[in-house]
């Protein structure tokens, strides 16, 4: 028994020693080990740009994941990023409008978080993140909710950094990720952005068909034809099926209202032609991301399909791809065509990404 106990103790000490820096013995010594990011091998996938001053590291991604899930970032320690970006919902909120740290209700539906970093390859403007394009890169995007008075409600970053600096773990974790105990807003943003760059969804039934791992159903094929032709006209904003992201990462007025209630991109640019334009969301994982649209007005995918089929409205900035169907009263899809389009969209669900498989 004693011999067995000594063996267990020896193994434990060996594991602890392996986690320490071999020179200093510090388990939290700066560790720039690169994070092994797996870019999907599906047709059409490419790498995305990673800032030279914020490379992905194992320690940085781990720190970002911990911060993302920690309510310490909210003013009263009640709200984390994960509160409104839940894994089972493809990192969005099943509520139409999320409830903030102080009980305030948001004004837009929480956006899902996956395949985000490709926006910095395919959107060459200064407006990439949030429904209204209010952030240029993921680092700036990470800070936005922390200071938003409706979301995490911090009056400034100094109070957030002070809480982190006093925490028993975070100074050491920041040292391991960035080489210093000193916690700054730049390092905070970099860590969360590193984690968000690893959120890649690429294993839907559509991806499996692209990899020749399954056969598409006839209904999915029919729906894909509707999607990628003038019949459904989805591809102008959501990309041809040869593009794996199902968004152009740009901004459009999709005809929700005759007078949009949300100024959208114009809030950032100040340009009248941007009034009511919202970021095009990806069509991946739609089964997990309801409700739909920037204001969460539709509860089901069939409601969304019927909206594009017969419910779009004219306005001064409505997208030409939407307005061209007005003279015909809409897309005029038959019930079977709408069902085929639905089945194609459902094939974009990645159950493994939300932890179901």
What does this structure look like?
By secondary structure, this protein is mostly helical. The chain has two domains: 21-197, Cytochrome c-like domain (Cytochrome Bc1 Complex, Chain D, domain 2, Orthogonal Bundle); 205-346, Orthogonal Bundle (Cytochrome Bc1 Complex, Chain D, domain 2). Helices cover 36% and strands 1% of the residues. It has a two-stranded antiparallel ribbon with strand order 1-2. The model is unreliable at 1-19 (pLDDT under 50).
Which key phrases capture this entry?
357 residues; mainly alpha; Cytochrome Bc1 Complex, Chain D, domain 2; 2 domains; 15 helices; 1% strand; globular; disordered N terminus
Q: How would you name the CATH homologous superfamily of the largest domain?
A: Cytochrome c-like domain
CATH first level of the largest domain: which class? Mainly Alpha
Query: What's the alpha carbon Rg, rounded to whole Å?
Result: 23 Å
Shape: globular
Query: N-to-C SSE series?
Result: HHHHHHHHHHHEHEHHH
How much strand? under 5%
- Main sheet properties: 2 strands, antiparallel
With strands numbered from the N-terminus, the spatial order across the biggest sheet is 1-2
Count of distinct structural domains: 2
Overall pLDDT level: 93
Structural class: mainly alpha
Helix content: 25-40%
- Termini separation comes to 42 Å
Second CATH tier, the architecture of the largest domain: Orthogonal Bundle
Low-confidence stretches: 1-19
Number of strands: 2
How many alpha or pi helices? 15
> What is the CATH third-level topology name of the largest domain?
Cytochrome Bc1 Complex, Chain D, domain 2
């Amino acid at each position: 028994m004693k011999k067995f106990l000594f063996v267990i103790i020896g193994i434990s000490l060996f594991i602890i020693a392996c986690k320490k820096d071999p020179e200093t013995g510090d388990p939290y010594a700066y560790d720039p080990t690169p994070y092994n990011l797996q870019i999907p091998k599906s047709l059409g996938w490419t790498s995305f740009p990673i800032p030279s001053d914020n490379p992905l590291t194992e320690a940085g991604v781990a720190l970002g994941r911990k911060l993302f899930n920690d309510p310490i970032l909210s003013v009263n320690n009640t709200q984390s990023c994960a509160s409104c970006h839940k894994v089972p919902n493809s990192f969005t909120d099943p509520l139409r409008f999320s409830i903030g740290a102080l009980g305030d209700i948001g004004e837009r539906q929480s956006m899902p978080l996956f395949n985000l970093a490709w926006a910095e390859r395919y959107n060459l403007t200064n407006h990439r993140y949030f429904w209204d394009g209010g952030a240029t890169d993921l680092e700036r995007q990470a800070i936005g909710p922390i200071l938003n008075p409706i979301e995490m409600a911090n009056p400034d970053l100094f109070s957030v950094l002070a809480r982190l600096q006093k925490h028993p773990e975070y100074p050491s974790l920041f040292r391991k990720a960035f080489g210093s105990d000193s916690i700054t807003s730049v390092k905070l943003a970099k860590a969360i952005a590193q984690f968000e760059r690893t959120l890649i969804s690429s294993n839907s039934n559509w991806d499996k068909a692209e990899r020749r791992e399954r056969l598409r159903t006839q209904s999915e094929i029919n729906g894909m034809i509707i999607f990628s032709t003038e019949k459904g006209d989805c591809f102008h904003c959501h990309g041809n099926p040869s593009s794996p992201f199902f968004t152009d990462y740009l901004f459009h007025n999709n005809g929700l209202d005759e007078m949009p209630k949300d100024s959208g991109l114009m809030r950032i640019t100040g340009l009248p032609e941007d009034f009511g334009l919202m970021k095009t969301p990806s069509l991946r994982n739609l089964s997990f991301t309801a409700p739909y649209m920037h204001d969460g007005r539709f509860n089901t995918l069939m409601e969304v399909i019927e909206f594009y089929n017969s419910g779009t409205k004219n306005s001064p900035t409505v997208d030409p791809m939407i307005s061209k169907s007005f003279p015909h009263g809409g897309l005029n899809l038959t019930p079977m065509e709408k069902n085929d389009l639905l089945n194609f969209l459902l094939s974009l669900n990645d159950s493994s990404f939300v932890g179901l498989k």
